[in-house]
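Backbone geometry tokens:
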Amino acid sequence: MSDIAKVDKKTYDYLIEEPPERWKRSCSPRRRYNLLTTNIIESMNSVLLEARELPILIMMDFIQVKLQRWFDERRNEAEGTFYDVSCWVEEELKKKIDLAFTFNVFPVDSWPSRVEEEGITFLVDLNKRTCDCFQFQFDELPCIHAIAAIEKRNIKKSNFCSHWYLKESWMKTFERQIHHVGHTDSWIVPESVKSQIVKPPDFKVPPGRRQKKRHIPTTESSKITFKYGRCRRIDHNRTSCIYSPTVHQFSRKHRE
């Protein structure tokens, strides 16, 4: 925070005025799906890379068809699952079961339990959905200690998951349908809209080739990998390849 104050005092004052749980990850009361995205537009840019070169109406049709197909596929996937929670949550819970069976569970009352893991005791309260490891509260999913207490009582694990992880919430996300707008002749456009004159934006096209991909900042690691087509191995090219039967004249193997 002191470094931020040195660079921009206004930003520092703005952050101090807001509660820390809004901008500080460690102060967040919960964490859903363990996924943090900065902007959904960045995720859509790669999908619409080719469509951005099309005329505006054709591009909108492309987006409509793409979203319609996505909603239909995800709706069918949600309806076809036999779990009470989403498939991702079910897999996460299964990963913890084997480890949970190695713990010693001592029920204290109807809901509280003591769970021992390698000599360390954790208090789990299934009614309050809390655990001393705090993973139960953060993820809003049963942690390995909570799963051990749940299996001891032979209760469904989905009863202790947040409603955001349930199958009903998954289906509700994609319950709406995306319909085609139809031909322009069938549109009912109000006169107030027809009377408006929309001029093209006052924009001057800069010289040079148009940029299609965003610049990767130095703080973000690049995921681009290079693969030599002859040997099918990554992170090198033909001049540094030592696996190809045909050695390049400037390769390291040839020099040796």
Remarks:
- Strands lie at 104-107, 112-117, 120-125, 130-131, 227-228, 233-234.
- The first helix runs from residue 2 to 7.
- The chain is about 40% helix and 10% strand.
